[in-house]
Automatic annotation (TrEMBL):
Chain spans, region Disordered: 656-679
GO cellular component annotations of the record: membrane
Name of the coding gene: SLC15A2
Subcellular localization(s) per the UniProt record: Membrane
GO BP term, pick one: protein transport
Keyword Cell cycle: no
Name the UniProt record assigns to this protein: Solute carrier family 15 member 2
Principal cellular location given in the protein's record: membrane
Cited Pfam families: PTR2
Biased composition (Basic and acidic residues): 656-672
Matching InterPro entries: MFS_trans_sf, POT_fam, PTR2_symporter_CS
Length: 679
């Protein structure tokens, strides 16, 4: 069972555990940071399949802890479970790295190796996850709760330190180092494999210092049998049987009072965990990078432990684990409230597609006179549109059998009607311009979706009788003569005050396009004024006008919520578990993360809501869940396993004394009367 450490030497053993966790988390998050990109660029999967496999792998990593907990508490013990499953973990990384070598077999073999590696990694990381935290907690005697709380804070910091560094280093290894004629995924996956080997070696190196709790046999099987027996007995009870205080007490005739009390302890905590997946549902919806979250955690943990919590205690407020967790949920809900406000303002710059049976339409007037346009059956575009006036925005126009019907009127005389075949749900610009017979039009399809990288989109409209060539940054725009429109191209965000425009005849002009801003889509109309080509810029889709700094409050709030909720939950799960079910309860805690992912899939993917409505819905759901959790926490009675252990020992001694007394008394009566008294 390993030797018991004195309280002053707990730091020595946990150093090995903390370093092990740092290396393991570096290994896991370093590999995971490249996973989606690996699917897309190396295995050539589409985005939907890549996303599905990524989430399936993530979910498996949080469902396998129950397997690791079962092995640790019932069979091998935490120490051996960590070692054996770490070996499985290392093998998974190696297989994954080999699958990333282009010269190894066919594409089918690469896929098979990659999937096999991911399954082994999920078994390894999930299996050791509940054991490492519980094993660290085992190094402390029950009376050293303060030191144990510090350990869980340090343990959580090591998780995020590994995550932070790995998400910086592994992408550099992939992109900056070239091998086999391309990005070096084999090296980028190989380094996490090496770190997992280091994690295993470091953990084994501290073996002589560890306090080890031996496994208690098939605990889970015994627990399930006890619960089943209690339910069966309660179902079959007679009307004349006296009632029991708790339904588990119906198992008293077969199972020990100690086991029944331990099951009650675990069930009380697991029932308390029922609302908790909603927190993880919000946390996994966060849009900021894992690297930033990990960095903030490293800053926030010491601030909370050394400043905030002591100040709250000085104010006379009692801090309990469940109160911390409830406040963490409140902070997470506030973070999503802040995200909702930001998203509402972001949405103002977004052009939503038209519904079925309709299209979006804007009017660009290049005729010399004011014009008005009417779509039959609507009251749109009633006001006249001036020459080169910025369009007022897109209007939703109904279609008739997939056709767009328009009536155009020139203020100073002249009109025409037009019928155009278009596609529903798309956006168009109707460009009205003069020709030899009066005025005419052309209809061009517009791009209204913002660039995923945030860079602006640009196109040109040439009104000149000769072809023009415009160079913007690294992009070349060629347009033929006569109201020709180029395709949209992505350009870098910036000021473009000296853009070169060369006509077909060799005439050169300098164009001032001004600022091409993040998220915008621009149409630049080139006209001639005083012998020079002059640009007129139209903003088809507005630029992003919400500064990135407005996201800082939600980052701070969600990180504060995580510190109060997640670290406290780890320590609470350990402190409230019986000695023989520490890993099991840690696995129960991790299962709340897995079910949080399920909630995300159901609500976010199934509902199809707008982003800001989804944010607001999650915030309201979490506040409601927080109220339920707070009520449940109010009726929860904290358990001190050390006191319970003493109580079990006292009861055991008392029962033995009572048994000895009854036995002696029975012998005395037998000597007197020759008859035995009933025991």
């Amino acid at each position: 069972g390993g030797k018991r450490l004195d309280s002053g030497f707990w730091m020595f053993s946990i150093c090995f555990i903390v370093v092990n966790e740092f290396c393991e988390r570096f290994s896991y998050y370093g590999m995971k940071a490249l996973l989606t990109l690996y699917f897309l660029t190396y295995l050539k999967w589409d985005k939907d399949l890549s996303t599905a496999v990524y989430h399936a792998f993530s979910g498996l990593c949080y469902f396998t802890p129950i397997l690791g907990a079962f092995i640790a508490d019932s069979w091998l013990g935490k120490y051996k479970t960590i070692i054996y499953l770490s070996i499985v973990y290392v093998i998974g990384h190696v297989v994954k790295s080999v699958g990333a070598i282009p010269t190894v077999g066919s594409t089918e073999l690469h896929i098979a190796l990659s999937m096999s590696g991911l399954i082994l990694i999920a078994l390894g990381t999930g299996g050791i996850k509940p054991c490492v935290a519980a094993f660290g907690g085992d190094q402390f005697d029950e009376e050293h709760t303060t030191e144990r709380q510090k350990f869980f804070s340090i343990f959580y910091m090591s998780i995020n330190a590994g995550s932070f560094l790995s998400t910086i280093i592994t992408p550099i290894l992939r992109g900056d180092v070239k091998c086999f004629g391309g990005d070096c995924y084999a090296l980028a996956f190989g380094v996490p494999a090496a770190l997992m080997v280091v994690a295993l070696v470091v953990f084994i190196a501290g073996s002589s210092l560890y306090k080890r709790t031996p496994p208690q046999g098939n605990v889970l099987w015994e627990v399930c049998n006890c619960i089943g027996f209690a339910l069966k007995n309660r179902w079959n009870k007679s009307k004349h049987d006296p009632p029991k205080k708790h339904w588990l007490d119906w198992a008293e005739e077969k199972y020990s009072m100690r086991l029944i009390q331990e099951i009650k302890m675990v069930l009380r905590v697991l029932v308390l965990y029922i609302p908790l997946p909603m927190f993880w549902a919000l946390f996994d919806q966060q849009s900021f990078y894992r690297m930033l979250n990990a960095l903030l955690i490293l800053v926030f943990v010491p601030i909370f432990d050394l400043i905030i919590y002591p100040l709250v205690r000085l104010c006379g407020l009692k801090i309990t684990p469940l109160r911390k967790m409830a406040m963490g949920m409140v902070f997470a809900a506030l973070a999503f409230g802040a995200a909702t406000l930001v998203e509402v303002n972001v949405v103002k710059t977004v052009v939503n597609p038209a519904p079925a049976g309709k299209c979006l339409l804007q009017v660009v007037n290049l005729a010399k006179d004011d014009v008005s346009l009417k779509a039959p059956g609507t009251d749109l575009f009633l006001q006249s549109i001036k020459y080169l006036e910025d369009p007022p925005g897109y209007e939703t126009v109904p279609l008739s059998n997939g056709e767009l019907n328009l009536e155009v009127t020139v203020v100073n005389g002249g009109n025409f009607s037009a019928t155009q075949k278009v596609e529903e749900k798309k956006a168009y610009s109707v460009i009205i311009y003069p020709d030899a017979t009066g005025i005419t039009y052309t209809l061009v399809e517009d791009h209204i979706t913002k660039n995923e990288e945030g860079n602006p989109l640009l196109r040109f409209l040439n009104t000149q009788p000769e072809a023009l060539n415009v160079t913007v940054g690294d992009n070349n725009f060629y347009m033929s003569s006569g109201y020709n429109v180029t395709h949209n191209k992505t350009v870098q965000r910036g000021e473009y005050t000296d853009v070169t425009c060369i006509s077909n005849s060799g005439k050169t002009s300098k164009l001032n396009l001004g600022l091409l801003d993040f998220g915008a889509c621009y149409t630049v109309i080139l006209t001639e004024e005083a012998g020079k080509i002059v640009p007129h810029k139209i903003e088809d889709v507005k630029a992003n006008n919400v500064h990135i700094a407005y996201q800082i409050p939600q980052y701070i709030l969600i990180t504060a919520g995580e510190v109060m909720f997640s670290i406290t939950g780890l320590e609470f799960s350990y402190s409230q578990a019986p000695a023989n079910m520490k890993s099991v309860l840690q696995a129960g805690w991790l299962l709340t993360v897995a079910f949080g992912n399920v909630i995300v899939l159901i609500v976010a993917e199934g509902a199809g809501l707008e982003q800001w409505i989804e944010f607001l819905l999650f915030a309201c759901l979490l506040l409601g869940v927080c109220i339920i959790f707070s009520v449940m926490a109010h009726f929860y009675t904290y358990v001190d396993p050390e006191e319970m252990e003493k109580l079990y020992l006292e009861n055991s001694v008392r029962e033995e004394d009572d048994s000895d007394f009854k036995k002696k008394n029975n012998e005395i009566e037998l000597n007197k009367t020759g008859k035995s008294t009933k025991m």
